[in-house]
Amino acid sequence: MSRYNNYSNTKEDPITLHSSRLVSYMNGHPQTLLGYAKYYGDSRTAMHAKMIDIDSSGIVLDVTMEDGQQEEIHVKFKTPLRGYEEVRPVLEEMAKEAETALGLPSTRPPSTTAPSDPSKHTPYVLPSLIPLLVGLSLILFVLCLDLFPEYLPSFIAPLREALGPDLCRAITYFTFTVRSVETIFITNVLRERGEPDPVTFAMWIVSSLLFGYFGSYRLFEEGKDKANKAE
């Protein structure tokens, strides 16, 4: 019997979404789990413990005893967790209590290697074909109009002559200024969200530079989806 019982699991649990990642991380710290099993599960003969599930109300451990028998132990948190950010401090406090009571050396997982909050990660999504072509065509058209007129179709040549080289250069400056402002804005959005993956961060930035709004609009769609799921 566990020290805390009445473990339950609900479909709308705030931790369930991250359970696979947390289980994988905690199974990299077997001594911590063994301390949980011995202390909270009252299983002093436990030899090995593996986490198999976690939600806001507690954890489930698969424990192997000295005689080789296996037992599933449910350990309930003293207070249900309200969000992912509470997982690490609660598990570390439980580990500290267990090691103190059992006279064990520190088994707490190093805080520097704890997983970052996945809710802050916004995976890069490639724009659909039409927005991608529109964004890329716009920048190519401006460049050709100003710097590479020889690549322009013949029916565009009169337009360049009518605008004149100074206005064409002004359009180029304006376009790249707008793209730069858009990219700075996207950079700030990613920083405010705390995007943990530098590769993903860079992909959003490059996409904004190349395609402008057409390369970054899905960043905000992803944000809305996360907000709706959180509600």
From TrEMBL:
It comes from the Eukaryota. InterPro entries: DUF2470 (IPR019595), Haem_oxidase_HugZ-like_sf (IPR037119). Gene3D superfamilies: PNP-oxidase-like. Residues 105-117 have a biased composition (Low complexity). The chain crosses the membrane at residues 129-148, 201-220. Residues 19-94 form the DUF2470 domain. The keyword Ribonucleoprotein does not apply. Residues 98-120 are annotated as: Disordered. Keywords: Membrane, Transmembrane, Transmembrane helix. The keyword Transmembrane applies. Pfam families: DUF2470. PANTHER family: MEMBRANE PROTEIN, PUTATIVE (AFU_ORTHOLOGUE AFUA_1G04315)-RELATED (PTHR37783). This is 6492_t:CDS:1.
